[in-house]
UniProtKB/TrEMBL annotation, chains A, B:
This is Transcriptional regulator MntR. Belongs to the DtxR/MntR family. It comes from Maribacter sedimenticola. Keywords: Activator, Cytoplasm, DNA-binding, Manganese, Repressor, Transcription, Transcription regulation. It holds the Pfam family FeoA. Residues 1-63 form the HTH dtxR-type domain. The keyword Cytoplasm applies. Gene3D superfamilies: 2.30.30.90, Iron dependent repressor, metal binding and dimerisation domain, Winged helix-like DNA-binding domain superfamily/Winged helix DNA-binding domain. Homodimer. PROSITE patterns: HTH_DTXR.
Amino acid sequence: MTLSEEDYIKAIYHLSQIDNKSVATNAIAEQMKTKPSSVTDMVKKLSEKSLVNYKKYQGVSLSEKGRLVALSIIRKHRLWEVFLVDKLNFSWDEVHEVAEQLEHIKSDALIDKLDAHLGFPKVDPHGDPIPTKDGTFKKSIKKLISELPVLSEGVCVGVNDSSASFLKFLDKNKIALGDTFKILDREEFDGSVSISTRSGTIRISEQIASNLYLEISDTE
Amino acid sequence: MTLSEEDYIKAIYHLSQIDNKSVATNAIAEQMKTKPSSVTDMVKKLSEKSLVNYKKYQGVSLSEKGRLVALSIIRKHRLWEVFLVDKLNFSWDEVHEVAEQLEHIKSDALIDKLDAHLGFPKVDPHGDPIPTKDGTFKKSIKKLISELPVLSEGVCVGVNDSSASFLKFLDKNKIALGDTFKILDREEFDGSVSISTRSGTIRISEQIASNLYLEISDTE
DNA sequence: AAATAAATTTAGGCAAACCTAAAAAATTGT
DNA sequence: ACAATTTTTTAGGTTTGCCTAAATTTATTT
Ligand SMILES: [Mn+2]
Ligand SMILES: [Mn+2]
Ligand SMILES: [Mn+2]
Ligand SMILES: [Mn+2]
């Protein structure tokens, strides 16, 4: 598989996670920063290789084979992110671009040994689960703060938007994965939310709330 | 720079180290496992970019700019080799292929942090020196065993041939970098050499002797 | 149910990196 | 010196991944 094919497979995987429908050509083009006509070319090729199911004008979805390829690339991407943060002291907002390259290195032995070296991590620096070698992985039961009712309590386990600017914002406001939050109150007017943390109570905008995942520890 | 351009630059660098003449098209083709006509294409492109000096039919040599590019790729290659052996427990005969890929990852921060993580190593697992960031590096005064006179003594610091089969041979015969050897005797007939090691005296063929470097500690 | 708009595909091209076959230049042998 | 051989370059193609412009299909309005 070429680097480009791998990135397309990964893009299709991520887009199909959003809702469970087949993925539109334009959506892939936007994600991959190419033109729709280029996407059509590539989708045809992936279809020939049985990595995707494709019917003209009907959008595209990953085949089982394609899904396993996607998970293996995501596994590599996330393991490298752990390496960059844990071993090389990168901050979590700096790792994406480099991991985007490292995920394409071809060597099964490499990724197994890297996994061992890192102590078989279960999640990456952004709280996203790392698929196992055989392509299984547990989606945690996590919810966006914006989708949780008032008085919910839970551990912050992930981000929706992992852009450097958002991650830097979190650092500046002392919000980190692993912190326990309680939703105290939600403002009708603008959807902003008041949450209590170890270090006090803060108010976050709807935009922030819709980009932070909590793993809810039963509120009872 | 593309991956392919980088590999060409590296090949030209290595070939020009052998003797100090300009490098022949056919030699590059052999090294790169392509056809001479492809080499001509690429050399023209590198020449446009002022990375090599090239005149038709006259062979090619690296410009100063090209030399620095070569050294930066070699630096990355060798640092990754150290990482693979020291941190991921690869054996020294397994690392070349993966390092061949890793050397092309683009990120200055990555290579600086990797260097620090490894403790700023001076040589790679095959005893080859690691160029510094600014492209200087010390060629050690090392000589092939086949070129040294009888009774020379020194530390084994490098290999000429780093193919997996040769490295495996060394492991099997308990020859490792850092070992101290003394050349006891050389057979006129076949060039084979008798050397004393910590673990006793062994006889090595001319072919082996011409692939092992010693750093000679003055014999006086 | 048209008409309009949006999404998607097709057609035709381009650059990178390779190829084969043929031509040209350099080297070697006599 | 000049014929034969070797090396190198040129000419013309291929594949991959991208592009623009035009055609086609599907979706949305009116
Ligand atoms: Mn990628
Ligand atoms: Mn991540
Ligand atoms: Mn390489
Ligand atoms: Mn090496």
